[in-house]
Amino acid sequence: MSATAELRRTVAELHRELTRYELVIWTAGNVSARVPGHDLMVIKPSGVSYDELGPDAMVVTDLHGTLVEGDFAPSSDTAAHAYVYRHMPEVGGVVHTHSPYATAWAARGEPIPCVLTMIADEFGGEIPVGPFALIGDDSIGKGIVDTLRASRSPAVLMRNHGPFTVGPTARSAVKSAVMLEDVARTVHFARQLGQTDAIGQQDVDRLYGRYQNVYGQ
Description:
Layout: H1 3-20, E1 30-34, E2 40-43, E3 59-62, E4 67-69, H2 78-87, E5 93-96, H3 100-108, H4 117-123, E6 129-130, H5 139-149, E7 155-158, E8 162-167, H6 170-193, H7 201-213
Parallel strand pairs: 6-7
Antiparallel strand pairs: 1-2, 1-5, 2-3, 3-4, 5-8, 7-8
Helix pairs in contact: 1-6, 2-5, 3-6, 4-6, 4-7
């Protein structure tokens, strides 16, 4: 099986995780994966129902968003994903959702404070807000890259738009998207009860180091 064929299957399967965790509605949202060793990526097509997103529906583009393989037009967010891959070579997967709690923080233009050990573990501190940008050129991608380069977080809340997450693989980026929505919801609930206190930076650093380097098998 070719590298792109295998990634088409993987990316199709990962889109099911977005619906499983209720991070998207209708045809919104997308997952992409860099093709290792090539200036290519696999991404969801535009406006196709999640029920129809099998491997054959996935499309392959170059890192400027030009269609290389596939029968459908690429996602409307392809330019943003492509910009991330061109400027962050360590990134192997990008996810965009409109998950409701994370998107509510994006609508407020407010970072999610690091008030939970889970936030310290996965995001290394507060979850930052990126600038407002319109779809259609490199503005969204530039905002994602500029914000994430100044943070340890694999997630950014693009102002008035929604979250983007990145990772060394598409699966890790999906994991961050799932965890982002969970902590966005929990911190929202906590705010309804009263003031929240951020975890101290030294403890954040220790938690992040343990989770990234020690936790798991």
